[in-house]
Structure formats: structure tokens, C-alpha cells
Amino acid sequence: MTIQTVTTTPYPDQKPGTSGLRKQVSVFQQPHYLENFVQSIFDSLDQLDGALLVLGGDGRYYNRQAIQTILKMAAANGVGQVKVGQGGILSTPATSCVIRKFQALGGIILSASHNPGGPQGDFGIKYNVSNGGPAPEKVTEAIYARSQRLDRYKILEAGDINLDKLGETQLGSMRVEVIDAVADYQALMESIFDFDRIRALLTRPDFKMCMDALHAVTGPYARQILEGTLGAPAGTVRNGIPLEDFGGGHPDPNLVYAHDLVERMFSLTPPDFGAASDGDGDRNMILGGNFFVTPSDSLAVLAANATLVPGYRSGLAGIARSMPTSGAADRVAAKLGIDCYETPTGWKFFGNLLDAGKATLCGEESFGTGSNHIREKDGLWAVLFWLNILAVKGQSVEAILQDHWATYGRNYYSRHDYEGVESDRAHQLITQLRAKLPQLPGQTLGSMTVDYADDFSYTDPIDGSVSERQGVRVGFTDGSRIIFRLSGTGTQGATLRLYLESYEPDPHQHGSDPQTSLAELIEIADQIAQIRTLTGMEQPTVIT
Ligand code: G6P
Ligand code: ZN
């Protein structure tokens, strides 16, 4: 086996976004495209020589080929050992778990998360560091800088590894271990949750659960843990076999893309509990019978009930949420007398808070919830957390939320997405909005008065790093907020996200449809930002 050094030239577009490098499959299939990026990762890492790396992906189209290439490049670049998930499968949370458990230098995850897959879909690659979390900006910037100067990469000339057979093989001077994709993750879940109580709930004849894995990576994890270990009836997990194109669907657990699940949960005889996860298993959506739990409320409920779960019995150090996530968790934190941190969008911003022991639970409005057990958000963990709470409280999902709102008040919340907006138009909208910000405070819009208007800037309390321009916020004197942000994860055109929130303390007013409660804010948002005019869209493409 010889090491080849291949001459290459830089691609200008290898700048990682919110969550790694995410592009259409056809972009990744250009000659040397994947190789260039992987070499840029390797060149940016100190201590690569002899190191342990973790490798896996969400099973989408191009996963297997990419894994073979990366293994051969790792061997040529002096990596000591790679643990790779069987069949090339490892969910994002499982990768984080394995990195931490075996103190690996880092891990490479092949996924475009919730973006569609298949030859016409998207592919992605992200690097996680030794704490198991997404690479911080200084690392991704170094990778990008390297990619812009790259003139060669190294790859071992060798045959493919059998990814389906568990066990160790040698690739040049590197050891490759094909690992059970679920086992380490399952052991971690068993150390956190009360599996006996959850088993008692899931085997009750009057309790029905439906988990939709959307043909993505959570399938094997959910089937083994929920149906295998916890005794849920076969068929509890739907669409549980990962497919390269996710069955043609959009593996994003929200009310629009998880439509089959939503239909079942909003039927005449719905299951008691419904959940879905995304392409790479880090997102979650939680539903009760005829009831949707917003991700912001889910974080607040988990926080308020955390001590019911063995892993959090001794309480929480703090809570962290992304800026556009509703303030529901802040109210729980205030009652518990703990800190609540507000970070920019992107899980990586939680890493320092978790490492420093300042936050135990974290959550984002984008269907992400997690804790200090790993350094990624974790879809199935959230599902098990909810099951543990349901098992202990013996209430329905809806009753839990109603009690919660009665105690803390309700933060009405909705996100409107305008997808596929022409990029120039979207940037124009944000630029015009920024220009207006200084004049907004004090203005009366509809029945509301603007309290503050700014572009969110975050100073990390641990390392002092500053992240600017993380979303335009307009806050009103009654505590309502409107936030405007451009998505950092799309691959075509731009997506405008509009986040709307208002607070209602009165329990008699907790039963409204959020779109009705937020109608005035929706109108004001259009007035401030000219959304309809500039996007050319009358309605958002997705409302959650
Ligand atoms: C990924 C990250 C999340 C983040 C989300 C934002 O899923 O892992 O932490 O919240 O992207 O996506 P957006 O499209 O709004 O930039
Ligand atoms: Zn994801």
C-alpha cells in the first residue's frame, strides 16, 4: 500500500456554515472536492499523528463512498486509529458520545442534517473536536483558510474496508475499528434515564407511542432502545430503516415535513405520545394527542421537571438557549434561582458553557434540545427525557403543558420561514432593516411601543470571544419580540426566518392558536421589514 500525494487546486466555496460544509451532492462529486476539504481538516489539526478519530454519517447518498475516501486519507495522514460506525452509520449525538467516551482527538460526521438526500439532494461534512462538540469558529476558520491555499492531498492506495462487519482491520499503518453504532450511545442513555419506569410505561396496554425516524439515522437507535430494550411494541418506530434518499422526504421533524406523524397525532384516536427526529438524529419534535409542543416550551418543561430524571436528580447548574428561542426557559431558571444564558443560533455556542459547568440543559427553537451528557443536541435523548417525565407524572403531554403554563405563564411563539428567497433580496431586506434600527425605539407600531431594536451580539462569558450580527431583534415594552435572521444552513438561495414571541400570564388566555395571538406582531414584522414586497411571497413556506 503506497501513499499517494495528489496535486490539487483550491475551491473557493469551502467555508463551513452554521454546521459544517453543506452542499449539493453534485458539488461534492466534483474532482477532489471532498478530498480538499478533508485534507484541510487534517492540516489544521495539531496532534493528528497517531491520534484516534471517530467517523460516521447519517447514511445519506454518498456516505459510504465518502467514508472510504476519508479512511484512506486518514491512513495516509498518520492517524493512528479510526472508530467507524457499522455500515458507515453514526448519528451526530452518538458520534459526540463516542468521541468523549474514548477521548478521541475528534470526529468527522457526514451529514447535511435535515436537508433532503439522494443524488439530487445535499451532502455535508462537519468536524467535531475532543469535547465531542462542533468545531469552534477558530477551528472552522483555520480549515477554511487552509482550503484556500491547498495544493496537494494525501491518500493511501488501498482497497475498500468492509464497513458492515464489526471488528478491527488494518489500513496501512492505521487501525480501523468498525463499531456497533448504537451500543455506546445506549449505555449512556441507560446511565441517565430510569429505564425501568419507562419500560413500565411503554408496555402499558393503554399507552401508545409513535416515533417517526423519517427513514433517517435515528431508526436503528430508536428501534434498538425503544422496541428492543424498553419493550415498546414492534411498529412503535416508523420509517426506521435509514435510506440514502430518506424515502424522498425531507428529514426535518417539524409540523410540515413530518406530515404522516402529524396526521396520526391529530387524528380521532391519536397515540398518547409522538416524536420525530431529523437526518442525523440531533433534532426532535414532541407531540401529544392533538397537541404540539414547541421546542421552546419543551426546553422549559424538561428544565422544570429535570429532577424527576435520575441523571439530573441533583438539579441543574444553569440553562442556555439560543437568542431566537422563547423566554419560557428563562422563567423556569428564575424560579429555580439558576442562570439562563442567551447565545447566538448554533449549538457550538453552548460548548463553553457546558464545559465550564455553567449550563446543564440547552435548547434551541430549531427543534434542538440537549444537555451536558454530550456536546451536541440529541433527538432520542429528548424523547427519553419526555418518556421519563410522562412515566413519573402519569399525566398527558397536554396536561403537563397546561400545568406548566399555569405556573409560569405562556410564551406564545411561532417561527415563519420564507424559503428559497433570492439571495440579493434577502440580504437587501436585512440591510434595510439594520439601517432602520436606530429610529425604532420609542415608536408606536399598532398597539405596541418599541422598547429596543438591535443586531444581537454575543460575548462568550468563558473565552471572551465576540460574535456580532447574530439576528435583528425588535423588542416591545410588553415583552413581545420579533426577530429576523437569515438561515445559515440552506444550500439554495436564502431562507428568511421570522421569530415571533409574546408573553401571556393569564391562564384564561392560554388556549389560543399562536397564529391568532401573534397576528398583530406578524403584521408589524411585515411593516418593519417589507417581507411580502421584498420576498415576493404572500405567505411563509413553513410555519412552526
Ligand atoms: C443547525 C445547528 C443548530 C442551529 C440550526 C440553525 O441545525 O446544529 O444548532 O440552530 O442549524 O439553522 P439555521 O438554518 O436557522 O441557520
Ligand atoms: Zn441535525
How much is the radius of gyration in Å?
A: 23 Å
Sheet with most strands:
7 strands, mixed
The percentage helix is: 25-40%
Distance between the termini: 53 Å
Strand content: 25-35%
Organism: Lyngbya confervoides BDU141951
Family: Belongs to the phosphohexose mutase family.
Enzyme class: isomerase
Keywords: Carbohydrate metabolism, Glucose metabolism, Isomerase, Magnesium, Metal-binding, Phosphoprotein
Spell out the key features of this protein:
544 residues, alpha/beta, 7-stranded mixed sheet, 7-stranded antiparallel sheet, 32% helix, binds 6-O-phosphono-alpha-D-glucopyranose, binds zinc ion
Record the SSE blueprint.
Blueprint: E1 3-7, E2 21-24, H1 25-28, H2 33-44, E3 52-57, H3 63-76, E4 81-89, H4 92-101, E5 106-110, E6 122-128, H5 137-147, E7 152-156, E8 167-171, E9 174-179, H6 183-192, H7 195-202, E10 209-212, H8 218-229, E11 237-238, H9 259-265, E12 273-277, E13 284-288, E14 291-293, H10 295-304, E15 318-322, H11 328-336, E16 339-343, H12 351-355, E17 361-364, E18 368-371, H13 379-393, H14 397-408, E19 410-421, H15 423-436, E20 444-445, E21 448-455, E22 458-459, E23 466-467, E24 472-476, E25 481-486, E26 494-504, H16 514-517, H17 519-529, H18 531-535, E27 542-543
Parallel strand pairs: 3-4, 3-5, 4-9, 10-11, 10-12, 15-16, 15-17
Antiparallel strand pairs: 1-7, 2-6, 5-6, 8-9, 12-13, 13-14, 17-18, 19-26, 19-27, 20-21, 21-24, 22-23, 24-25, 25-26
Helix pairs in contact: 2-3, 2-5, 7-13, 10-11
The chain binds 6-O-phosphono-alpha-D-glucopyranose and zinc ion (ZN).
The site of 6-O-phosphono-alpha-D-glucopyranose has 13 residues, from loops.
Enzyme class: isomerase
GO molecular function: metal ion binding; phosphoglucomutase activity
Domain Alpha-D-phosphohexomutase alpha/beta/alpha: 14-152, 192-287, 296-408
